């Protein structure tokens, strides 16, 4: 039996005034180094993976609110930001709720559309599409970060005809929080927002 899974990832990034202190940053870094490695190590395969691939894929679908996946997205974003000496992002459950609300609206058709009209946005949204069950949060963030090659730091613009806004949204100095959500659409495809 063949199963196809499609996923789009809307990463909602929120602009706030910097409120972090060195103490909060230190606590975040300690949390990152103490807890994330345990969550990330083979987090995509539960202990005692069934030999039946179908059962494994179905059980994986039932874990939409997994903290491990949220931490993977957060960690991947923060690796990109660290390369540019930017402060790490924090997970925002309010943004996650917003992303989930938008994903639920798109549940019927699973279209890759932003939640705001062109030019009328207040939050940043990055979209990722991946098929199958093997994509990871790091794959989505890597795809966005790969746009760095099209970004000209001197002019603060993308190369002509190229896209780099997903990358700039990740490393933007004023970005402080991130949240995302994922659902299964009525079509059977996966959608993340």
From TrEMBL:
Keywords, in A-Z order: Pathogenesis-related protein, Plant defense, Signal
Pfam families: CAP
Signal peptide: 1-41
Domain SCP: 68-190
InterPro entries (alphabetical): Allrgn_V5/Tpx1_CS, CAP_dom, CAP_sf, CRISP-related, V5_allergen-like
Gene Ontology CC terms: extracellular region
Function: Probably involved in the defense reaction of plants against pathogens.
Entries under PANTHER family matching the protein: CYSTEINE-RICH SECRETORY PROTEIN-RELATED (PTHR10334)
Name of this protein: SCP domain-containing protein
């Amino acid at each position: 039996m063949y199963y196809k899974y499609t996923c789009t990832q809307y990463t909602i990034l929120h602009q706030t005034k910097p409120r972090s202190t060195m103490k909060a940053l230190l606590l975040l870094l300690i949390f990152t180094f103490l807890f994330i490695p345990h969550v990330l190590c083979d987090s995509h395969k539960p202990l005692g993976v069934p030999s039946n691939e179908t059962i494994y894929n179905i059980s994986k679908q039932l874990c939409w609110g997994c903290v491990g996946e949220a931490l993977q997205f957060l960690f991947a974003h923060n690796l990109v930001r660290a390369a540019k000496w930017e402060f790490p992002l924090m997970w925002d459950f309010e943004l996650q709720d917003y992303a989930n609300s938008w994903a639920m609206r798109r549940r019927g058709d699973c279209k890759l559309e932003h939640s705001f009209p062109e030019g009328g946005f207040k939050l940043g949204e990055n979209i990722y599409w991946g098929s199958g069950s093997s994509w990871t949060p790091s794959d989505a963030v890597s795809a966005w970060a790969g746009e760095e090659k099209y970004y000209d730091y001197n002019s603060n613009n993308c190369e002509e005809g190229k896209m780099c806004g997903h990358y700039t949204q990740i490393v933007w100095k004023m970005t402080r929080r991130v949240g995302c959500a994922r659902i299964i659409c009525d079509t059977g495809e996966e959608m993340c927002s």
